């Protein structure tokens, strides 16, 4: 055998142990995984090996170690020369290996003479973790890690690895391209091509089963309509996380001092803005650096003017759904609000700058999702009295005046990940009433799980009333639609 010192220096690559041997009296290599001791044979001759570029892969072995993949690297005769010039990767089965994994999933290659392999003892196996990617900063990741540790206690032998960043969407796209799928994601990318191509796990089998508590079906745990977004050919591919409804926030103390009341219709909103402006106060802060904040106003007006069916027709590019008087009216009202009542300089402000202007008392209102308090943590004056009301309706509306437009984060499970079914079990735990209540309380953001809004802070009391009163929702239409239109619409409108 090769001396241990040489194993640890000459043959060290990146991460894991691999054993190589050559079947006695045969041109076929015999491959033994250093972790599981399984063997596999593949007729590859020396010429084939030499023609392969470094890192070429044809197979992989599922291991119990960290991310689950051990890449068995082989070379036939002239082993050291082949290792220096080219590597053929095979494994204990013949399934395609994730592209690129060879670079960071192997540690050392050991050349073993015939008969020596049986002398090497197998290393203890470890369970590969369920990998969860989230659009979160480190503080938010740590909040999610607490229930992950609790889940591990309830499911001995299962490990959860949670990671993420504000740029996690870019990293996830690379992972998808190389075929190294995490189990669970809650990241803003376009999942529809993945759903159509069979990469995402349909969840209906589990949704129609029991919820975590066993008090009903998992499907019935969620608020009405919150499961509709990612349905395809009768199957559901995602479950909702937070229920981040759009709200109009206002300074209660300022409103009380001037005798102003929250408006219910757009006509009342315009009249209120005139009163606020006459008092020498800017009516509304606005996050102008991100034109999508104006989209909420346009959608709200158009939905209330035409109703849900015609509102969804526009997302499906039905002829006439853009070039019609009602949509022109929605655009005109939004323009009127912006040009007359947004704070001066708001078009150059990001979301936190604009929202800080509101909390400093420089404006009377700001539109933002229910996550406003979480986003501005540490920036809200202690004596600030925060109120909220639903986006206005119109006179004689076609839409439901109580309807809310929620921004919902969704959990997806990759079908081709290592442990998709165990991953679903963890998502069931995350959306249990107890865990969702914990996340609601810590983040101070509503979740889509029924019976959790009572854990929101007093500052979100008005938000709870709006959610409880809502009889309908609107927003992105169920199904794929035309996601490529978003950039085009942004360019045209703004």
Give the biggest sheet: 8 strands, mixed
Indicate the low-confidence ranges by residue numbers: 1-125
Q: Write down the Rg.
A: 28 Å
Measured distance between first and last alpha carbons: 70 Å
Q: What is the typical, i.e. mean, pLDDT?
A: 78
Helix content: 25-40%
Number of strands: 19
Number of helices: 18
Question: Which shape, going by the Cα principal axes?
Answer: globular
Q: What features would you describe in this structure?
A:
Strands 10, 11, 12, 15, 16, 17, 18 and 19 form an 8-stranded mixed β-sheet that branches. Strands 3-2-1-9 form a 4-stranded mixed β-sheet. The chain has a 3-stranded mixed β-sheet with strand order 4-8-7, with no helix packed on it. A hairpin with a 5-residue loop joins strand 2 and strand 3. Helices cover about 35% and strands about 15% of the residues. The chain starts with a helix and ends with a helix. It is globular. It is an alpha/beta fold.
Helix-strand blueprint:
Elements lengths: L3 H6 L7 E6 L6 E5 L5 E3 L4 H6 L4 E2 L3 E2 L6 E2 L1 E3 L4 H7 L2 E3 L17 E5 L17 E5 L3 H17 L5 E5 L3 H11 L5 E3 L5 H5 L7 H4 L23 E2 L2 E2 L2 E13 H7 L7 H13 L3 E4 L6 H15 L1 H8 L9 H17 L9 H9 L3 E7 L2 H4 L10 E4 L16 E8 L6 H11 L2 H11 L17 H9 L15 H9 L1
Parallel strand pairs: 1-9, 4-8, 10-11, 10-12, 16-17
Antiparallel strand pairs: 1-2, 2-3, 5-6, 7-8, 12-19, 13-14, 15-17, 15-18, 15-19
Helix pairs in contact: 4-16, 10-11, 10-12
Give a brief rundown of this model:
The chain is of the alpha/beta class and 494 residues long. 34% of the residues lie in helices and 17% in strands.
């Amino acid at each position: 055998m090769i001396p241990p010192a040489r194993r640890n220096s000459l043959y060290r690559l990146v991460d894991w142990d691999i054993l190589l041997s050559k079947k006695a009296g045969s041109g076929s290599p015999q491959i033994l995984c250093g972790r599981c001791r399984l063997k596999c044979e593949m007729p590859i001759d020396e010429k084939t090996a030499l023609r392969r570029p470094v890192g070429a892969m044809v197979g992989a072995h599922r291991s119990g170690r960290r991310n689950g993949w051990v890449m068995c690297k082989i070379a036939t005769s002239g082993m050291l020369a082949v290792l220096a010039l080219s590597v053929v990767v095979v494994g204990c089965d013949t399934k395609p290996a994730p592209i690129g994994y060879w670079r960071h999933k192997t540690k050392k290659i050991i050349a073993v003479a015939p008969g020596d392999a049986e002398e090497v003892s197998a290393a203890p196996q470890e369970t590969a973790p369920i990998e969860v990617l989230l659009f979160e900063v480190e503080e938010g990741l740590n909040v999610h890690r607490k229930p992950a540790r609790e889940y591990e206690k309830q499911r001995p032998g299962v490990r959860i690895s949670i990671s993420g960043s504000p740029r996690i969407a870019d990293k996830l796209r690379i992972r998808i391209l190389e075929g190294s799928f995490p189990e669970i994601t809650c990241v803003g990318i376009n999942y529809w091509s993945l759903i159509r191509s069979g990469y995402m796990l349909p969840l209906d089998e589990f949704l129609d089963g029991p919820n975590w508590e066993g008090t009903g079906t998992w499907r019935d745990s969620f608020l009405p309509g919150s499961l509709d977004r990612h349905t395809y050919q009768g199957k559901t591919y995602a479950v909702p996380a937070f229920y981040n409804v759009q709200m109009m926030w206002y300074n209660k103390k300022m409103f009380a001092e001037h005798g102003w009341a929250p408006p219910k219709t757009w006509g009342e909103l315009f009249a209120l803005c005139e009163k606020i402006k006459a008092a020498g106060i800017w009516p509304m802060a606005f996050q102008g650096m991100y034109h999508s904040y104006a989209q909420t106003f346009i959608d709200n007006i158009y939905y209330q003017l035409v109703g849900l069916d015609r509102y969804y027709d526009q997302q499906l590019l039905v002829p006439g759904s853009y070039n019609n008087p009602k949509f022109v009216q929605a655009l005109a009202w939004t323009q009127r609000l912006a040009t007359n009542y947004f704070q001066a300089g708001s078009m150059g402000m990001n979301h936190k700058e604009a929202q800080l202007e509101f909390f400093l008392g420089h404006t009377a209102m700001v539109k933002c999702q229910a996550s406003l308090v979480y986003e501005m943590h540490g920036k809200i004056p202690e004596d600030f009295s925060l109120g909220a009301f639903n986006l206005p309706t119109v006179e004689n509306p076609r839409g439901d005046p109580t309807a809310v437009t929620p921004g919902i984060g969704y959990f997806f499970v990759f079908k081709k990940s290592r442990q998709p079914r165990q991953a679903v079990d963890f998502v069931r735990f995350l959306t249990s009433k107890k865990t969702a209540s914990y996340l609601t309380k810590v983040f101070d953001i509503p979740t889509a799980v029924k019976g959790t809004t009572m854990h929101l802070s007093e500052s979100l009391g008005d938000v709870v009333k709006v959610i409880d009163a809502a009889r309908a929702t609107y927003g992105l239409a169920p199904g794929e639609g035309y996601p490529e239109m978003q950039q085009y619409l942004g360019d045209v409108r703004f």
